[in-house]
Amino acid sequence: MATRERTIDDLRALMRAAVGEADDIDLDGDILDSTFTELEYDSLAVLELAARIETQWGVLIPEDDASGLETPRMFLDYVNGRAVAER
Amino acid sequence: MSVLTADAPAVTGIGVVAPTGIGVEEHWAATLRGVPVIGPLTRFDASRYPSPFGGEVPGFDAAERVPGRLIPQTDHWTHLALAATDLALADAGVVPAELPEYEMAVVTASSSGGVEFGQREIQALWRDGPRHVGAYQSIAWFYAATTGQISIRHGMRGPCGVVVAEQAGALESFAQARRYLADGARVVVSGGTDAPFSPYGLTCQLGSGRLSTGADPARAYLPFDAAANGFVPGEGGAILIIEQAATAQDRSYGRIAGYAATFDPPPGSGRPPTLERAVRAALDDARLTPADVDVVFADAAGVPDLDRAEADAIGAVFGPRGVPVTAPKSLTGRLYAGGPALDAATALLAMHDSVIPPTAGGADVPPGYALDLVGAEPRPARLRTALIIARGYGGFNAALVLRGPNT
């Protein structure tokens, strides 16, 4: 599926819808390089985010790959094809 | 197991999220007004269903009362319980962060689990395919989800459990709380909520044949009335904080003095139902006699055969018109797992204020029931001991004896 570049704002919206918003974490802040642990995402939350990316953006992220994506930037790089190119 | 009243566990906090309101004050005021809050369902359009009425929690906004992360991750029934737990903890003055995490326990009751959440995911499954089923379906529908989320949210790492016994479940949760306390827990979050209003949830309930199909919401649930024709479901419930008698001290609303449960023989066995035995055993457990009981909060099924069976059991234990009986759930509908939890909360408030709450409409009780049913007006009375009766669909019976704080 040919798509435009996904941005951190696109991902923020998806994160809000998929996992909700914690009271003590500002998703509008500088979260690009925050780890999902820092964002209080457990493995189920990462799985849900990956599933939303697949169904809404059309980019399949196999579970084994998803578990290695530790920050929003890594998710975006993966989705935008950069991570694949670098491998 | 038997516990003397003096050492009996104390209820130190009450959190209500019910059709009568959010919080103890709203609930108690609405209960004493005695005006039913049953109406056409608004959570979804139920107008084409044979039983389109229910008792819904007014003005519940999850965004105000549930942590943002948990809103998309849990069902409405868990939202209601999380909100009730916050209210109950605040009411008890319990700050979980200040207590040893392994000495705080959680046991709740659930009757239908996350049925609305589950329906959404099943719809996604059939409409869009398996990749569209959210990851949280794996935990949100499950009966234990509420207990688990309360435990995680408040760092309560002591024993945790869930009871699934339809309408009897919440009384079982209080009994289990008592066992946890006997085993060394300091604080137990217990009680129950349910959220039975989704197309799938309502359809499941129709199968029992016990839902009212009357066209007038004001006449749809008339327990112990000559015109009883089934019941109306409701959502919500109550969470109670239960603590060891020694640590509760002057924060106590009252005590869990006695409890028993029985299970009915299968239909067609020829053997009698066992509700009477549950009531007697609960009194024995409390080391009290029928004469000690000042008020009975009835199960109040609203189904003629079941109303008669309950009236017979009460009569057998207490004698004809031998004890005041009330059914405040006539105001809200039957809340399933939440119902007896709310009754327990109401009974504690009644003992505190020395008044028996009314039964909506003031039922036209058939003389054969020989019940002293409290009518449409509250009845002042000195109340030291209350009995709560609950029956769950499928044969569950439970009875709980509560005593006031100074007994």
TrEMBL record, chain A:
Domain of life of the native organism: Bacteria
Transmembrane segments: none
Protein's name in the database: ORF 3
Signal peptide: none
Segments forming domain Carrier: 9-83
SUPFAM superfamilies tied to this protein: ACP-like
Pfam families per UniProt: PP-binding
TrEMBL record, chain B:
Keyword Acyltransferase: yes
Domain Ketosynthase family 3 (KS3), first and last residues per copy: 6-404
SUPFAM superfamilies membership: Thiolase-like (SSF53901)
Superkingdom of source: Bacteria
Molecular function via GO: 3-oxoacyl-[acyl-carrier-protein] synthase activity
Pfam families for the chain: ketoacyl-synt, Ketoacyl-synt_C
One GO BP: fatty acid biosynthetic process
Keyword Acyltransferase recorded: yes
CDD domains membership: CLF
Annotated keywords: Acyltransferase, Transferase
Assigned protein family: Belongs to the thiolase-like superfamily. Beta-ketoacyl-ACP synthases family.
UniProt protein name: ORF 2
High-level lineage: Bacteria, Bacillati, Actinomycetota, Actinomycetes, Streptosporangiales
